[in-house]
Amino acid sequence: MTIEFQLSAEQRDLQALAHEFAERELRPVAPREEFPPELLAKAARAGLTSYAIPREYGGGGVDAVTAALIAEELSWGCAGLAATIQATMFPVRPLLRFGTEEQRERWLPRLASEHGCLAAIAFTEPQAGTDLQAMRATARRDGDAYVLRGEKCYVTNGGVAELTVVFAKLEGAITAFVLEAGDPGVEPGRVEDKLGLRASHTGSIVLDGARLPADRLLGAEAEGFAIALDFFTASRPQVAAGAVGLARAAFEHATAYAREREAFGRPLIAKQGVSFKLAEMGMAIEAARLLVWRAAAAEDPLLGSYAKAFAADTAMSVTTEAVQVLGGAGIMSDHPVEKWFRDAKVFQIVEGTSEIQREIAARILGSS
């Protein structure tokens, strides 16, 4: 058996496309920490909002490893901007795996549109985060419709998305639905002011008797928990890839600074205390990337949790050390490392904290 680490020509081309877009469109606006309105359409025209959508619905149809390559490059540009761009594909896997053909034909081409389509997926509630079973949002059948009540919070693109997959309990069982912008009874709630990934919009969705036709049910009734678990299995390696991209950005900046900055007559990188930090940072990034590729290819919950925890923790440690290498400059906004440091912390929280990833891994290992 041969293990191949070389990327295909198509993968290299897509990686280069994403990197060039990140360098040209994301890096220049990243310091503002806000999402320019025109950026979504630019990303859509470049195919960077639809690469995971099958070709028959207007997307790029790439595999999960290729998607991770793209995610790394976009996050290298700006993890906050990348979060908004990549959230446009959140409904894709639920629709592909659990939606009807009519639903796929209705919504996937819209998500693949060259104009861009903001999308979201809404799990979290004020009292229910990792523990999905604690959610209180409810759905009830009313003739040929469903009526939803409750609140979802900490939703990327929450309240501004054109399309949102939302979860609520129907007769006590978690069930998934698709919301469209303008649905009656669906209102935007609070917009969050975050520590990091500030360029991505994070908001609440208020379901005040939202009445949805029966064709908005995604999957079967009571199938929402399975839909959520399937989503996380695929999404965690992609989030981990973003963490790798962020760590790489900080590592590259710190290395360049250490080569140029002189102290006591020598470049900083000539000092073992600095050069060893950089060596450790580089090793951790390479290990995280390979774990991400392995998890993305396998689509295995255990490997997904490994990758998410390891890559997020790597991003936090690398950005912390990058700040240290820069010293006083590292805590100033003149250099991007202080922003990357704040962004990295968010990766240890979203899609399940680093602690819950370890708990998931331990649970899987214990049941094997």
Walk me through what this model shows.
- The protein is α+β, with helices and mostly antiparallel strands and 368 residues long.
- The chain contains eleven helices and ten strands.
- The strands form two sheets. Strands 1, 2, 3, 4, 5, 6, 7 and 8 form an eight-stranded mixed beta sheet that branches. A two-stranded antiparallel ribbon has the order 9-10.
- Strand 4 and strand 5 form a beta hairpin.
- Helix 7 (224-260) packs antiparallel against helix 8 and helix 7 runs parallel beside helix 9 (301-326).
- The longest helix has 37 residues, at 224-260.
- It starts with 8 loop residues before the first helix and ends with a helix.
Total of helices: 11
Q: What structural class do you assign from the helix and strand content?
A: alpha+beta
Uncertain segments are none
Major β-sheet annotation? 8 strands, mixed
Distance between the termini: 26 Å
- Could you tell me the strand content as a percent range? 15-25%
Order of helices and strands: HHHHHHEEEEEEEEHEEHHHH
Cα Rg: 21 Å
Number of strands: 10
Q: State the shape.
A: globular
